[in-house]
Amino acid sequence: MDLDHLHITRMIKRNGKLEYLNPKDKDFFINRVGSMRENQVVEMITDFANDSGKLSQISRVHMLIGKISKFTGDTDEAVKKEVKEIAGLYKPTEDLRSFKHCSQEDLEFAIECAIALGSRIGMNLR
What we know:
Elements: E1 11-14, E2 17-20, H1 23-34, H2 54-72, H3 76-86, H4 104-120
Antiparallel strand pairs: 1-2
């Protein structure tokens, strides 16, 4: 999967139709479709959001980790370990904490740590 083309958006069903929660996402999607070549296949993954928002946070942190690993040539696992160490979710004497067992606050901090790690190596992940 080419993570440069990965896009996560949130939508809500109203009056039988899906609407973008953020109007900028709609513009992004329209531009993305316009840049596609004819007969290009698109993969879509959908899930129902829950009140915690953790699924989208987990997806985002994994996307950031993937972009960093592609940029640096490190493995996803090595970058994930580094992000977890920076975020305080891993200590050498303990097992790695799975992102799925983290709170929303922990996940948000892990996302910020991944963005900061990217900035330190010359990436703009915002």
